[in-house]
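> example.struct
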């Protein structure tokens, strides 16, 4: 017995929750928030948060860590390195992906992947990717997964061999509805992209910028519309992942206005980068290749507007671990690409065979804080909703993560709002060899990250050890509870 009411008191900070900003001390006991108030009694340990803004730890509900693709392409980020980077950037929990390899059961895909996650320093959970929704997968494996607390599914409407056709997507939606899972969707039209790629390659256009030309906003808008329509058909809640353009955001806004259970996610790359970043010497544009693609300069402000009007609910990193030297500029590593090993004379890949995705698990929150809060685009409660609280609601972690209320896990970030930093690859903790935000000026930086009451990072030094993160099993919740085979009213309507 220490003789103290609290193991740790974070004292004198300005607290920002999803709803308000207020001054209080935080008393922590056994890894959870025990009390909020002014002049709390001394704890066994004390941290001064004077002059700091204290937010809940970030929840990054979309990142790819140590994923092993069916084509053998490995994401170079390990759970130990990716979680160190996450914590250094103020993210205390993340949700990454259990792959399904086409032609394989869920259990037989990417063997050992789930066990490797035990090396994480941050808390973690999984979405299950469904690429091959056989009756066995839908009727046996998905319910077993849900029973283990993995209550969210991810489907792709593009990429070969990951994509589902409409009928398969409907089957996944119906399974989620029946057994109680949430569904997330990558929305782009595969055939439209294929047609554009062929035309561009025939014209001899092979640069990274042409990746964006091959998948213009209409391709994303069409698939977003279709995903929402099919989710409406089944009456199944969905989140549209990584919205990059106003055209797709407009579909989500219209669905929300009609009362549909549709949520939108975007990422810092769509808020700060553009076509300009897809161009550069020595194939540098490949560093910013991701799907959906970056858009023409100016589109970023339209995405900010969709954050401000509540259309987009969550900002995630969509972190991908493809280094520039070993994967982005090397023909043959086609993960999440649309082509095979097509090489140009200098050995770099054609645009359609560049691995898709950018690293950003560490920079997600500093970029959002700087561009959002410091530049006055969003207030602090909005920052908290985008960075953790809304994801906690959507993915069954409400009350536990993304909250400063007593009873929540004591995941906290102490932000120095005045710290001015230039983002440099050399200072980051990820295992990837570049950042698309190299040279970016940020105002506001996480000084201390606390995960379940323990100081995980202080002044950039990661103290949390590999293996100290915990798996977050998720029980049934409002958006993911079993609701029968067919939509409400179906029987009445057909009677
Ligand atoms: O380009 C991206 N986003 N790569 C990662 C896979 C995905 O689509 O989420
Ligand atoms: Zn995606
Ligand atoms: Zn992704």
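> example.seq
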């Amino acid at each position: 017995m220490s003789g103290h009411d609290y193991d740790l008191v974070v004292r004198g900070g300005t607290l920002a929750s999803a709803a308000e900003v207020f001054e209080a001390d935080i008393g922590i006991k056994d890894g959870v928030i025990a009390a909020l108030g002014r002049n709390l009694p001394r704890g066994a340990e004390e941290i001064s948060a004077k002059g700091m803004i204290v937010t809940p730890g970030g929840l990054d509900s979309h990142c790819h860590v140590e994923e092993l693709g069916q084509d053998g392409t490995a994401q170079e980020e390990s759970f130990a390195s990716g979680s160190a980077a996450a914590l250094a950037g103020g993210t205390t929990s993340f949700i990454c992906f259990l792959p399904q390899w086409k032609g394989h059961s869920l259990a037989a895909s990417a063997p050992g992947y789930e066990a490797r996650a035990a090396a994480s320093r941050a808390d973690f959970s999984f979405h299950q990717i469904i690429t091959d929704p056989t009756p066995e997968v839908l009727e046996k494996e998905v319910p077993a997964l849900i029973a283990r607390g993995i209550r969210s599914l991810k489907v792709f409407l593009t990429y070969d061999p990951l994509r589902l056709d409409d009928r398969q997507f409907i089957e996944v939606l119906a399974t989620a509805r029946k057994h109680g899972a949430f569904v997330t969707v990558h929305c782009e039209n595969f055939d439209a992209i294929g047609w554009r790629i062929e035309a561009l390659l025939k014209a001899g256009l092979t640069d990274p910028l042409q990746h964006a030309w091959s998948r213009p906003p209409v391709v994303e808008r069409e698939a977003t519309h279709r995903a929402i329509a099919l989710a409406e058909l089944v009456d199944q809640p969905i989140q549209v992942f990584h919205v990059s353009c106003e055209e797709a955001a407009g579909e989500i806004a219209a669905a929300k206005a009609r009362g549909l259970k549709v949520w939108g996610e975007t990422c810092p790359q769509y808020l700060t980068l553009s076509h300009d970043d897809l161009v550069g010497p020595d194939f540098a544009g490949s560093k910013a290749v991701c799907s959906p693609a970056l858009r023409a300069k100016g589109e970023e402000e339209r995405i900010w507007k969709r954050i401000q009007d509540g259309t987009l609910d969550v900002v995630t990193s969509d972190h991908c671990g493809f280094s520039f030297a070993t994967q982005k500029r090397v023909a043959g590593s086609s993960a999440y690409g649309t082509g095979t090993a097509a090489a140009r004379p200098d050995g770099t890949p054609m645009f359609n065979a560049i691995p898709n995705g950018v690293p950003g698990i560490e920079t997600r929150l500093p970029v959002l804080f700087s561009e959002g809060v410091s530049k006055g685009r969003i207030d602090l409660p909005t920052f908290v909703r985008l960075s953790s609280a809304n994801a906690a609601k959507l993915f069954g972690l409400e009350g536990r993560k993304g909250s400063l209320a007593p009873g929540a896990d004591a995941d906290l970030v102490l932000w120095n709002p005045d710290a001015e930093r230039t983002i440099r690859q050399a200072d980051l903790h990820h295992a990837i060899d570049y950042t698309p935000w190299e040279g970016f000026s940020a105002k506001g930086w996480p000084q201390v990250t606390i995960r379940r009451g323990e100081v995980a990072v202080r002044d950039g030094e990661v103290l949390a050890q590999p293996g100290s993160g915990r798996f977050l099993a998720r029980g049934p919740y409002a958006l993911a509870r079993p609701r029968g085979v067919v939509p409400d009213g179906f029987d009445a309507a057909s009677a």
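> remarks
Confidence is low (pLDDT under 50) at residues 491-495.
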